[in-house]
Amino acid sequence: MSVTQQYLLDTYRAQRLGTPPPPAPGSGDRLLLRGLRERRACRRVLAGRAVGGWRRLLPRRAPLTRAARRPPR
Known about the structure:
Number of helices: 3
Number of strands: 0
Oligomer: single chain
Shape: flat
Structural class: mainly alpha
Distance between the termini: 54 Å
Helix content: 40-55%
Order of helices and strands: HHH
């Protein structure tokens, strides 16, 4: 049974029993990832390391101007 089928079955069951429907699958993914990122950052601070991550190591690029975005004619 797929996740979608299980969700539909649980929604149907909740409707028949008069209980609130379950949350849709994947609805809490962003909160989970944000919590993991914050936990990792907290551990890095407690260990005395920088929190910046890999983006800090990349070279900075100049922002593209409108003229630079246009394709050549």
